[in-house]
Each structure stands twice: as C-alpha cells, then as structure tokens.
Amino acid sequence: MLRRVALSLGMISGNALAWSGAYEGQVLVQGAQLDKPNDPDTYVIDKQQAIRASWREAGLLSFGKQLKFEYGLYLIGHQLSGQDDFDHLSLMYSDPRNRTTLLDTYIQRQPRMDIYATLDRLTLKTQIKQVRVNAGRFPIEFSKSYIFRPNDIFAPSTYNQLDPFHKMGVDALQFSGPIAPLGEWKILGVLGYDPVTEAAIDTDGRYIFPVNRLSPDRSSLLFSMMNTISENSLQMIVGSYRSTLIFMASLEGEFTKTWGYRTEIKQIADSKNFKYEFSSVLGLDYRWSDQTLLFSEVFLNGAGFPSSDYYDNIENSPYKPLAQFGRYYVGLGMSSEITPLLTSRLVAQHNISDNSSFLSLNINYSITDHFDVSLVGVGAQGKPPVAGALQSEYGAYPNSLGLQTLLRW
Q1: What is the residue extent of each domain of the chain?
Q2: What is the β-pairing status of strands 47-63 and 292-300?
Q3: Residues 255-260: contacts with CB under 8 Å, at least 24 apart
Q4: Which of the 8 DSSP states describes residue 314?
C-alpha cells in the first residue's frame, strides 16, 4: 500500500517547485524447524530452530513530471538455536558480482546471529521526450518462467529466500523507449565487480564488508527488444555479458482461454576459454478454474552437470554461483485461491541428473489488508552428503516447517 504526500518547495522563475512522494514498507518474520541431513562433515548439528526476519522500506519522490528518485532500505537477519553451519542462510540474497559493497553493511555477525542491511534501491529516473532513463541501483528481470529461470542473470533469486517476491537491485544504467504497438526497447549497462575475500574484523570488533573493486571485464552491455501481438509476447536480448557473448529470448502467450505457454532460451559463448552454454525452459499452464492455475516446466541447464560425480567441480564452475547443479530438470506447480482470504502455492522440482527432488508449500491467510499469516514447508529427497561430499543436489537441503507473518503499511 502506497502512502502519498505532496508539498510545494519555494519558487523558481516565479513557479512553485512541487514534489510528491509515495512510500511503503513491510516486516516479515519466519520461525522454522530445520531437519538437516545427518552428515557431521556437512552440518555440525542435524536439527535446529531458526528465526528469520526482514524489514523493508521503499519510497518514490517525484520532482515535477520529469524527475523521480526511488530508494529502498532492506534489513534482514536470522538467529539459530545452535551453531550456524549453513553459510548464513538469510544473507544469500546479495550478489556482489553486480553490486558495490559500499551500500552493504553488517549490523551484527555472530556464530548464531546475523543482521545485515543494504541500500537495495537507489535510482534516479527521468524522461527525455520518449526515452526513459534509469540510473543507480534497481532490479533487472528478463526471465518469464515460474520455476526454473535461466534468464534471471542479475542477482538471481535463491530457493531459501525469505521474501521470494522481492527482486534485489544491481548497479546499472538503462535507456528505454516504446515500440509500436505494445513493445519496448532497452539499452542496459550493468556494472561488474571483482570477487572479494572474507571480510575482516576492524579494531572495534565490528564485522565489515571489504570494498569490491569495479571490473570492466565483469560488466555487461545488453540490448533488448520486446513486443506483444495478439496476447503473445516476444523478447530478445543480445550483447556482452561479463566478457562473453550472450543471446536470450523468451516467448509467452495463450493457446486458448485455459491453456498457456512460456519458453525461454539462453546461449552464452565464451570464445576466449572455449566454453559454450545453452539453457532452455519450456512451460505449459492450465487454468483449471478462475481460482486455480496449474503449471509445468522442463529445464535444460547448460551450466549444470550430467551427474553428481561432477559436483566437486562446482566451486570452479565459470558460471558460479549456480542456481541449479544438474543438467536436466522437471517441475510442477499449482497456485490456488481457496477463498478470497486464503491462498496456496505448491511447487515440486526434480533433478533428473541425480534423482533428487524438492517440494515447497505456502498456505497464506490474509487476516486484514495489512497482515498475513502463512504456513511454509520445504521437503527434500535425495542421497545425503557423505563426508562432506555432495551425492545429490536436493539431498543436501534441510527439510523445514515454519510459520510466517507479514505486516504491510
């Protein structure tokens, strides 16, 4: 829900300089029981309670009709009942490859508690005739799929993300404009940064981020065109992606009023290192009723491995961090409005390459317009790790069951 204000700020050339603002915020809290695979070399303890929380405040200031400024503050943290051996779950959101760490900080980082803050939106927006300009930190979204998202190449979402509907921003400059009849073109430059080592403790004992240095070789320059004709939307993206050539395309639409489709492809060509990656997703949707949508996807993951025998190479993969480890996947899902106040979402994923599976469930009840309560569950099946070595992708995931509350204003 947006709150709006409008004021007049003095006089310029005899005219009032008016500005208006809109802001929104939310607090999300989740408590869960984690049941991890029994492998002491992977997890120190196999059962654990966790509390995770996030606070987000976002605003948009408009100065006249041509100039806007968007900001977003994001604070997230978690506390565990025992030693944290799962790589700081709540802090997997930040992808430092395209975000300067100057806007990130730890308020607290302890073995059992993390509190992390970031300026996740910082965007100056203007328009020159029909050309729109965005400069700063903002989200970039190319993927159209529901489950597997190979075209989500900038700050991709993670499976354990506390707020799955929040897309993290990256440092970029974007020019865009209309294409008849319902299309849009974009020229997009995204800054890249060198990887950083583990942060150090300063003299006050406070955990701080090192500053990651800007890297032209890790930056990207892309051109995108999108158009919609007769309920079918086609998008194509081409350019330089971290010193490699990239081509992406997506197509989505409807066969009938009940059947729909989504597909996307990605081709990366790294001629310097003789590495080529092709990924594709084909999805079908079925509108069971006005309240229920069924969807399915088949995924060829060009960056993945054909079996778990190769998972030892994940750390050295040029495409790290990998969203999925395997080469072939299938997924099924259902979203349903049981009543106007009660909704559910169920998604199942299967890694064909290592025969492991992952199931997530969210049942949400809106108590008021500003407050929701959800039951959140995750189930994983597959060969568990042995002596710290992965035997399957989802077999290394913890099972969890928890309660989540969301307060909006």
Answers
A1: 20-408
A2: unpaired
A3: 257/287, 258/286, 258/287, 258/288, 259/284, 259/285, 259/286, 259/287, 260/284, 260/285, 260/286, 260/287
A4: G
Judge contact between 216 and 170, C-beta under 8 A.
no
Per the CB < 8 A criterion, the answer to whether 123 and 140 are in contact is no
Phi, psi of 396, rounded to the nearest 5 degrees = -90, -5
Contacts of 274 (CB under 8 A, 6+ apart): none
CA distance 398 to 406: 23
- Mean pLDDT, rounded, for 44-61: 86
Alpha-carbon distance 290 to 337, whole Å?
9
Amino acid code (one letter) for 337:
E
What's the DSSP call for residue 211?
P
303 conformational bin, left if phi > 0, alpha if psi -120 to 50, beta if neither = alpha
In order of 2, 95, 289, 398, 399, the CA distances from 89 in angstroms are 30, 14, 37, 11, 14
**CA of 362: how far to CAs of 143, 191, 277, 340, in Å?**
22, 35, 33, 16
**Do 175 and 223 form a contact (C-beta atoms < 8 A)?**
no
Which CATH number does the domain 20-408 belong to among 2.40.50.140, 1.10.443.10, 1.20.120.80, 2.40.160.10?
2.40.160.10
Residue listed under structure tokens 């976002």: 58
Please check the confidence at residue 342 and state whether its pLDDT lies above 60: yes
Q: How far apart are CA 382 and CA 377, in angstroms?
A: 17
CB atoms within 10 A of CB 214: 13
From residue 208, give the alpha-carbon distance in Å to each of 214, 253, 376.
Answer: 19, 47, 32
pLDDT higher than threshold 50 for residue 10: no
**pLDDT tens track for 257-289:** 999 999 999 999 986 666 788 999 999 999 999
Q: What is the pTM of this model?
A: 0.86
